[in-house]
Amino acid sequence: MLQAIGLTSTRHRGLPPAVDDLTFEAGSGSVTALLGPPGSGKTSTLRLMLELEPGRGVTYFRGRPLHRVAHPAREVGVLLGDVPGHPARTVRGQLRMLCAAAGVPASRADEVLDAVGLVGLGDQRIGTLSLGMDRRLALASALLADPHTLILDEPAEGLVAREADWLHGMLRSHADRGGTVLYTTRDPKEAARSAGHVVTIDSGRLLADQEAADFSRTRLRPRVAVRSPHAARLAAIVSREARAARRSVEVVTEASSSRLSVYGSSCAEIGDTAFRHGLPVHLLADEVGDTGPASRPRDSGVLGDGLRDNGLLRDGVSDCDPLSEGEGKGKGGDGAAAAARPATGIGAVAAASRRAAGGPAPAVESAGAQLPPRIRRRPARGPLRPVRYELRRLFGVRSTTLIVAITLVASAAVSVVLARNGRAPLPNVLVAWPSLLPLPPAALGAGLLGALSFGDEFRYPALAAGRGTVPRRLGLLLAKLAVSAGVALSLGLLVVLVSAESLRLVYGGDLVQVPSNVMSLAASWSGLTVGCAWAGLLAAGIFRVTAAGVAAVLAVPVLMVPLIEAVPKAPTARSMSGLPGRLRELTWLQWPQEADRWVLALVRVVAHPVGTALTLSLSVLVCAYLFTSLRGRVRW
To answer: Which helix (H) or strand (E) holds 289?
Structure first.
């Protein structure tokens, strides 16, 4: 069961809150529709429930708020807008990446692809999907961890009738298995047709909380849609005959002067009346009209049913959301039947994708399409889960390979040019770092990869919709730091190897020789590449854009190094000789004498102007990150 209590959004610039003291609940085993016109606060309500917006109130998912749920992905599946994922990532790659984040086996991706009818489109890029396929992928993402509750924001918006019927069939199947389903819609006919419970809101406040049968009885009324070039004359005749026969018939003129809505009559009676008086009729169809929610004062209490009685429709009020002509045409109540028709099963596109994969079409039940099988065993949580997610995120798009390739080619070209005049030191030649450049290509590439690590999370928030804001998860931050460091070290090693091989190929093998201080140089090179990667990552996490991460990397040599070099030095420098021994005495640890060389090498790296600038920058970024991002509830 889902219980929302006192949800109230934060006021902005003196305006009334988008959601104001909203309380309702959605029961297990049923589909609940959150109904309201555009701007009524439906999306803000969902974001408050998922703790994605600041405000007041609490939402209990089976008795626990979301931040107290140990495994949020198994409790709540979310669909907010389009598929949150990089457009260059494949459908299967997107789901496998989310499998790693949710802690479920990677084979689960193929199971949900088969359930939503996308098994033949697993290798297609997300950016090339149509709207219907995009919604299917979003639903597959929500179903990955077999959640108990599904929260969806207007899932059927823009879909054709067949796709919408399939979608609602999937939602009813989930509810039939004991799950809770809450979705928003602006169409009252869709709510009456597909939901078992309807919660109506307007201006962020509760108007009605009804079962679907009561909602249909009080909110939706059968009517006859008529279109005629003599609509005004026909309306007068129908009203006059109804008064003479003492029948309760109401005629409402629509915005178009040629269209009428007649309540309390039938197609046969209206057709006979028009025939007797020789009036042509271009449209005559049974429909279901929406009477609209009743307004109430802002300071009144919660409305019981909040809707008008069947005979209290105000004169001149027209149907605000009529059925389309394709749904309302025909005799015998086709429009009314459409309001109660069940889901027709899997769509034509799903069947086509299954045929493309060589699999048989699934059997369609009356309650909707088949859901993927339940996950029998809950995998243990551990530190490798965010690491697997980060690795699949990093190598799931071609931008990573492209950046690495450009870095290697640029480094090889720069090293060959530097070695031509013979003036540059060999270490600078191997790492391709001329004095004209603020940073070598490898450091810039590592910084860009680090900035994309968090920048893509905010540009294509694959995790934010269901699990809260991305930077508040400490485990994900540590995984990103570890993976970015590994990538930076690998990139630095590849640059040195490629540069050495290029120099041997162009100038022969005598140029490249192992220097005596190779350990100190390796430590400096590793610290520079890893430091740039972490600077880009932390800055992108703080400012939530990739450009901020790149700017932070460039600020180290452009701003920080000149500031440090401008600090006046003391006339007499003190020596740090004997530091390893003093550290050994302070910590009471006995390490090998060989480790003293590594300690001194690390000290020399930090004492270098670039090392000092990078250390100061990382310290400031870490403090800013902790202050801005980890103040909230820390999870995973």
So the answer is: strand 283-290
- In the prediction, which pLDDT does 576 show? 57
Is there a contact between 599 and 580 (Cβ–Cβ < 8 Å)?
A: yes
Instruction: Compute the distance between CA of residue 22 and CA of residue 7 in angstroms, rounded to an integer.
Output: 5
**Whole-angstrom distance, CA of residue 604 vs CA of residue 612:** 10
Length reported for the chain: 636
**Angle, vertex CA 590, rays to CA 575 and CA 522, nearest 5:** 55
pLDDT at 579: 61
> Could you write out the three-class secondary structure of 515-580?
CCCHHHHHHHHHHHHHHHHHHHHHHHHHHCCHHHHHHHHHHHHHHHHHHHHHCCCCCCCCCCCCHH
Which of the pair, 468 or 523, is modelled with greater confidence? 523
Rounded to 5°, the CA angle 85-88-89 comes to 60
The residue written with tokens 């931050």 in the block is: 477
Bridge partners of 34, per DSSP, are 184, 199
Give the list of residues 6+ apart from residue 268 with CB closer than 8 angstroms, or none. Answer: 331
Per-residue pLDDT at 571: 55
Of 405, 380, 400, residue with least CA distance to 390: 400
Distance CA(73)–CA(464), nearest Å, equals 11
How far is residue 185's CA from residue 127's CA, in Å, rounded to a whole number? 25
Report residue 438: phi and psi, to 5°: -65, -35
Pairing of strands 2-9, 22-26: antiparallel
Rounded CA-CA distance 447/429 in Å is 20
Q: Determine contact, residues 128/173, Cβ cutoff 8 Å.
A: no
Q: Taking a C-beta distance cutoff of 8 angstroms, is the pair 344, 165 a contact? A: yes
Three-state SS string over 386-404 comes to HHHHHHHHHHCCHHHHHHH
DSSP string, 353-381: HHHHTTPPPPP-BTTBSPPPPPP-SPPPP
Report d(CA 524, CA 533) in Å as an integer.
14
| Residues contacting residue 272 through CB under 8 Å, at least 6 positions apart | none
Q: Amino acid identity, residue 492?
A: G
Cβ-contact 518, 504 below 8 angstroms: no
- DSSP code of residue 422: S
What's the mean pLDDT in 544-569?
83
Asked if residue 234 lies in contact with residue 279, where contact means CB atoms within 8 angstroms, the answer is yes
Q: How confident is the model at residue 629 (pLDDT cuts 50, 70, 90)?
A: low
Q: How many CB atoms lie within 10 A of CB 127?
A: 12
Cβ-contact 410, 439 below 8 angstroms: no
- 3 state SS of 449: helix
The mean-pLDDT minimum among 114-123, 146-155, 285-294, 432-441 falls in 285-294
